[in-house]
Structure formats: structure tokens, C-alpha cells
């Protein structure tokens, strides 16, 4: 199993807009071999931002890497540059392989 996460710092007051972006986009994940599940997680807020994380579970690291090189990935991220004003910096990627 492989878990892929992107952490996002979202400008205060833009949380619902960020959630709606994810809720209304077509990810095409259900068409990708090796995909298991996806969650969008909302974390704590501080004086500058609210932390969010996208969390996807894959059969393997290779399945995830295949997704990142697929046409489905390109289509899912085609409009990712929109709404830049709600993000405080680029997302921070973290990948984890199951060891137990």
C-alpha cells in the first residue's frame, strides 16, 4: 500500500471555496488502476492559514506514479492553477509506503 498526501495552506476565509473546488472537480481517480480511496482532510487554523491535506491510498507506489504520468492526471489537474489567491504557497507532497 502507498499513501500520497499533499498539504495545502489555505488563506483564512477561503476554506469553503477550497472544499468546493475539490467537491466539484472530476478527479478521474476511479478510472485509474491501483487507486483505492481519496479523502480531503481539514486541519487546524492559525493566524495565517488553515491546513488541508489530500489523502489518496494506492495499491503500490508504482500505481501512484503511473497515475501521475497518465492522461487522467493531466485532465484532473488541467485547471489546478486557477484560484491561486486562496493558496499560501505551493502544496507540500508527502508519500508513504506501508511497512507493516
Task: Give the gist of this structure.
The chain has 3 helices and 4 strands; from the N terminus they run E-H-E-E-H-H-E. With 100 residues, the chain is of the alpha+beta class. Strand 2 and strand 3 form a beta hairpin.
Keywords:
alpha+beta; ABM_dom; Heme-degrading_MO; Alpha-Beta Plaits; Dimeric_a/b-barrel; ABM domain-containing protein; 4-stranded antiparallel beta sheet; about 100 residues
How does this structure look, described?
The structure is a single chain. With 100 residues, the protein is of the alpha+beta class. It has a single domain (2-97), classed as Alpha-Beta Plaits. It has three helices and four strands; from the N terminus they run βαββααβ. It has a four-stranded antiparallel sheet. The longest helix has 10 residues, at 15-24. It is globular and about 40 Å long. The termini are close together. This is ABM domain-containing protein. Residues 2-96 form the ABM domain. It holds the Pfam family ABM. InterPro entries: ABM_dom (IPR007138), Dimeric_a/b-barrel (IPR011008), Heme-degrading_MO (IPR050404).
Report the helical percentage: 10-25%
* CATH classification class: Alpha Beta
Described by strand count, sense and barrel closure, the largest sheet is:
4 strands, antiparallel
Overall SS class: alpha+beta
Distance between the amino and carboxyl termini: 10 Å
Order of helices and strands: EHEEHHE
Task: Output mean pLDDT.
Answer: 93
SS elements, strand count = 4
Poorly predicted regions are none
Report the CATH architecture: 2-Layer Sandwich
- Counted by DSSP, the helix tally is 3
What's the number of domains?
Answer: 1
Beta percentage is 35-45%
What Rg do the Cα atoms give?
14 Å
Shape: globular
The strand line-up of the biggest sheet is: 2-3-1-4
CATH topology: Alpha-Beta Plaits
Domain ABM: 2-96
Organism: Photobacterium angustum (strain S14 / CCUG 15956) (Vibrio sp. (strain S14 / CCUG 15956))
Protein name: ABM domain-containing protein
Pfam family, one: ABM
Amino acid at each position: 500500500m502507498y499513501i500520497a498526501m499533499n498539504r495545502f495552506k489555505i488563506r483564512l476565509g477561503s476554506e469553503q471555496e477550497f472544499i468546493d473546488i475539490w467537491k466539484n472537480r472530476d478527479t478521474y481517480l476511479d478510472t485509474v488502476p491501483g487507486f483505492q480511496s481519496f479523502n480531503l482532510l481539514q486541519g487546524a487554523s492559525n493566524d495565517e492559514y488553515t491546513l488541508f491535506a489530500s489523502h489518496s491510498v494506492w495499491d503500490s507506489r508504482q500505481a501512484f506514479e503511473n497515475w501521475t504520468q497518465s492522461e487522467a492526471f493531466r485532465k484532473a489537474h488541467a485547471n489546478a492553477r486557477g484560484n491561486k489567491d486562496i493558496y499560501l504557497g505551493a502544496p507540500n507532497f508527502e508519500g508513504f509506503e506501508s511497512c507493516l
